[in-house]
Amino acid sequence: MIGTIQPHARSRSARARREIVTFVRRWPLHLALILIAVVWILPSLGVIITSVRPRNDISSTGWWTVLFHPAVTLDNYTNIIGSLGFGRAFLNSFLIAVPATLLPISIGALAAYAFAFLRFWGRKTLFLIIVALMVMPVQAGFVPILQIFSTFGLNRSYVGIWLAHTAFGLPFAIFLLRGFFVQLPLEILESARIDGASSLRVFWQIVLPLSRPALASLAVFQFLWVWNDLLMNLVFISNPVLQPLTVQTASLLSSFGQEFDILSASSVVLMIVPLIVFLSLQRYFVRGIVAGAVK
Amino acid sequence: MLRTFMAVRASTLLAVVVAGIVVAGCSTPASAVPASATAQPTAAPATQAATASPSLAAGSPAPSNPALLTVLTDWGGTDQTKFETIAGAFTKKTGINVQIEGTSDFATVLRTRVAGGDVPMIAIVPRPGFVSDYVKLGLLKSLTALGATDFSNQFQKAWVDLGSVDGTPYAITVKANSKSMIWDRPADLAAAGGAPATLDDFKALMTKMATGGKKPLVITGKDTWTLGDWFENIYLRTAGPQKYSDLFGGKLPFTDPSVVSALTTMDGLIGNDTWLNGGRQIALSTAYQDGLGLVYGPKPSGEFFMEGGFTGSVAINDVNTSLKAGKDIAFFPFPSIDPQYTNPVVGGGDFAISFSDNDQSKQFMQYLASVDAANVWATQGVISPNKNLNMSGFPDPLVQAEAQQLTTAGLFVFDGTDLMPGALGDDWNTAIQSIFQDPTKTASILASYDQEAATQFGR
Amino acid sequence: MRNARRRFGNALFILPAGLLLTVFMIYPIILTVRMSLDTGDGLRLTKFIGLTNFVQLSKDRLFLDLANLSGAVFNNGIWLVLYVGGCLLLGLVIASLADRVRYERAIKAIVFAPQAIAATAAGIIWLLVYAPQPNIGLLNGALGAAGVQPIGWLGQPATVNLAIIVAAVWAGTGLVVVILSAAIKGVPIELVEASMIDGASPFQTFRRIVIPMIAVPISVVVVTLSISVIKVFDIVYVMTHGGPAGASRVIAYTYYVQTFEAGRGGYGAAAAVIMVLLMVPIMALNIRRFRLDDADR
Q1: Are B304 and B206 in contact (CB under 8 A)?
Q2: pLDDT level of residue C123 (50, 70, 90 thresholds)
Q3: What is the rounded distance in angstroms from the CA atom of residue A285 to the CA atom of residue C149?
Q4: Which of A1, B210, B327, B339 is in the most buried spot, having the most CB atoms within 10 Å?
Q5: What is the distance between the alpha carbons of residues A23 and A11, in angstroms, rounded to a whole number?
Q6: Average pLDDT for residues C18-37, to the nearest whole number?
Q7: Angular region, C177: left φ>0, alpha ψ -120 to 50, beta rest
Q8: Is B434 an interface residue toward C (CB < 8 Å)?
Q9: What integer is the mean pLDDT of C231-251?
Q10: Helix, strand or coil for residue B51?
């Protein structure tokens, strides 16, 4: 580490040569890292390749022999989208995830603002309750929530699942946003108050705009959380036609055994949105997930 | 300066957030009405809901619409299509539209829908255990209350009894299956000397095939129910019908010597590496349909596959569409073991139950009990146990043979695990899987399962 | 007076959240506790039976079997050791190795990507890896090439938990890498140099200097992973449905089977209550940590 730093300037070629030598000398390190990368990529690569192979190839030769059997087809995709309803399920996933992301963020931001700046009765205790609720297993609420839905007829539509995801997402949303809000420069808030701005105004016009990174991280985290959720959708959406991709994919497992043609295509469809989010919003994504580590 | 800057940024963000909320709000009514979603057959997954009548697509009938009937089934794929034909015939006759919802996670979906207040009017349940479960909760309407009183003229008493709780009939058997058959590859079987009649013949046949380098017997132990079916067939043939009904009816302990003996016979058959395809561990990680692929797929390595009559249609429709029924795929009856029990058949079935006594439910249950419905089923290759059924209406020789086996059975018993309440049946299949996994633990597994059974049967 | 009204107005900010949390979390949790003391047939309060469900659970072979070291509780224990340990160890190794090369970002992105995808997808990805047929499953294909008979990884109790956990570690290590990699970069280079100059080997330096300096992030990681162990469900549901023979059931799976498949509301609720109880120490820890953080500020 230290030895590579040289105080004297050298010719470019000499430096390049030196770098190559260093690189070669450290081959065990590079080998280990490349091995790790391969191990991490291979499983997903298998599913992606399988998803574009003809059904008969899949069951007769391993996907790693694809170069010797280079037939490629989109049949598996047309199959799941055409006759197995994955187009509709894809739409459903959005219909569930978008409101179930916006609701907890808006409601959570309001509450977080109050916990960060306002005084009201029981503020400390209430916040500790929220910290505790953050790790509450969803199972502890399933059956009673179903009964509430039954009373108000909420699980025939998405309203029920939106509310359930919102409620279970709120503690973390409040926790994360409050943590961000309290670090904002107080002077700006106070000068606004002196100017006579109401709490609501300060919230809308100052706090929220300054918190864009936190809101974005939270949005990415919550969106993926809902998009990837299987269990809550399984329980709270009673109508099979309204089910999202996760449930639809899992149901292929039980009704078809292990048919990797449709399974692989369906898992690629299920992964595509999260991976796009990951690649395009990597910064917020990593922040959101890391912050969400406490959940 | 700063404030102007902030205001601009704030307004942008405000717009975004507000727009988001508006979107959320707007999509509420759109997707909050399930009927608008469910009523579009094109959007419906094939394994899932589809509607029986095209007229549904246009309207958006709420579930309260008097002309709509909702049915929940555990059928997917071709089974669903077959049921759509029955529902279509019903719609043609009565003008009542049927909305079918199929789900592979049937027990859970029915349970959550009942708990969540979104109860289907009719459910087609895969085992009688469900009938008693929901009767106990006071949720089912009796066939008498539904006006389906003709059922006793249409079905033999055994089938009526299967759908009755404490003497009151609640369910109509819509579909019957034999589970006592071994599927084979006819050419290979003929070459090896034809169908075996007894267990010993069967073993000799497989030994012969094994010396030719084959591992003929495919076992799909990943799906526990297939192991459960093996046990039921062997138990019926070794212990007889009385002990069979006592065991699954909660009167005989699962630690009974007859159970241990049947399990030993079973392990000698399906746990024998001489003919077991892939060996025990592979058998335990092979699922039903994958196993079927080993016998009927493009590169077959096995010869024999024991499962119910539905296997033929799965093999032809889902495993290998080039199969010709009777030529590439056929079955012979499960070999006999104790000669005093002649022609014994273990069977299964699906039952229609009604949570509602509204007009459309009544009409549908009455229709399902009629011979008309049974004959439409037959055209779809589905056997209704209706005794007035026209036996020549089946489309393929495999179903014809199965119907023959069912009607000529020397004795008929229902799939035992399907008769047990709650999760006992599944847990029994699981216990058998554990025993197949490690036969040395037989005694302790049986003892611990029997404790659970004793509690739930109130023994 | 004005102050009181102001405080009332302030409370309006938390009203929507408070309402939702009360109706959809706090009230349901109380009802679930009540349900765990009931038979709960058909998921409705039916008959109060005290602690019977908990007593039965403790004797349920598939929930806790101390004699054979199996059952859902024991499996969660295996998860705790192997999943938390596996993620932590691999995460530490990858973070510190990647720290020393230029393509660090690429390596981290590759390892982190599975974090984005659903457990359902991860489950299918690994079902394909473990497929018993050597011409479908990569693992058995590789074993076959080495002349080893195929192994039914998910078909036997001896390997099933390990196999699922490996899949989960594959999905979960990325988080550890990202957290620990940031922490490792925070270790002052002077300390490392000083240690090396004193003649310590890189490994000794890592163990004596680096590890103690990142102890706090490590503890965060351990807590995080433990939470996901208590909650684990999706990947088990997808890969094995708790099988073979219930050998891969976890507590959350017992809850699911008993409640929704068997309709034994009380028995299932008891399993859910046990999950909540297991979370209590973590809640306490979170609250304590929050209080410390808050006092720091």
Answers
A1: yes
A2: very high
A3: 42
A4: B210
A5: 19
A6: 95
A7: alpha
A8: yes
A9: 89
A10: strand
Paired sense of beta strands B172-178 and B344-354, if any: antiparallel
Instruction: Give strand pairing partners of B66.
Output: none
C-alpha dihedral, A174 to A175 to A180 to A186, nearest 10°: 80
**Interfacial B residues in 201-230 facing C (CB < 8 Å):** 221-222, 224
Closest of A179, A169, A258 to residue A221, by C-alpha: A169
Q: How far is CA C213 from the centre of its chain?
A: 25
Which residues in chain C have their CB less than 8 angstroms from residue B451's CB? 59
Pairing of strands B50-51, B172-178: unpaired
**How many CB atoms sit inside 10 A of residue A259's CB?**
21
Of the candidates A138, A293, A137, the residue with the CA atom closest to the CA atom of residue C277: A137
Phi and psi (nearest 5°) for B178?
Answer: -90, 145
Tokens representing C113 are 């990507």
Question: d(Cα B339, Cα C174) in Å, to the nearest integer?
Answer: 63
Q: Is the dihedral of CA C166, C171, C174, C176 positive or negative?
A: negative
CA separation for the pair A77, A70 (Å, rounded): 18
Chain A, nearest residue to C94 by Cα = A33
Query: For residue C213, is pLDDT > 80?
Result: yes
- Give the mean pLDDT of chain B: 81
Supply the pLDDT for residue B40.
Answer: 32
Q: Which chains touch B (3 or more CB pairs under 8 A)?
A: A, C
Q: Which residues of chain A make contact with C141, given a CB cutoff of 8 A?
A: 62, 64
- Per-residue pLDDT reduced to its tens digit, B187-229: 999 999 899 999 999 999 999 999 988 899 999 998 889 999 9
Greatest Cα pair distance in chain C: 85
Phi, psi of B274 (to 5 degrees): -60, -45
Alpha helices in B98-170 (DSSP H): 106-115, 128-136, 151-154, 157-162
Whose tokens are 């495999």? That residue is B398
Q: Average model confidence (pLDDT) for chain A? A: 85
Amino acid identity of residue B244, one-letter, is Y
Coil, strand, or helix at residue B73? strand
**What pLDDT score was predicted for residue B196?**
95
The answer to whether C83 and C225 have CB atoms below 8 angstroms apart is yes
Packed helices A282-291 and A260-280: angle between N→C axes, nearest 10 degrees:
100
Q: In the prediction, which pLDDT does B42 show? A: 32
DSSP conformation class of C150: P
Q: Give the SS3 label for residue C264.
A: strand
Q: Is the predicted pLDDT of residue B428 greater than 80, yes or no? A: yes
In this predicted structure, the answer to whether residue B11 has a pLDDT above a threshold of 70 is: no
- Whether pTM > 0.90 for this model: the answer is no
CB contact under 8 A, B115 and A251: no
Between CA B78 and CA B74 the distance in angstroms is 12
Beta strand residue intervals within B179-324, DSSP E: 181-184, 217-218, 304-306
Reported as type and span, the H/E element at residue B100 is strand B97-102
Say whether pLDDT at B425 is over 90.
no
Distance CA A225, CA A165 (A): 9
Host H or E run for residue B406: helix B397-407
> Which amino acid makes up residue A160?
G
- Residues A173/A101, Cβ–Cβ less than 8 Å: no
At residue C226, the pLDDT reads 94
Whole-number pLDDT of residue B49: 37
Amino acid identity, position B102: G
Inter-chain touch C263–B434, beta carbons under 8 Å: no
Q: Which two tokens stand for residue A283?
A: 């910064």
CA distance C3 to B392: 88
Q: Is the peptide bond before B61 cis (omega within 30 degrees of 0)?
A: no
**pLDDT band for position B422 (cuts 50, 70, 90):** low
What are the CA-CA distances from residue A194 to residues A187, A198, B79 (Å)?
10, 10, 72
CA B351 – CA B338 distance, rounded (Å): 32
Contacts of A276 (CB under 8 A, 6+ apart): none
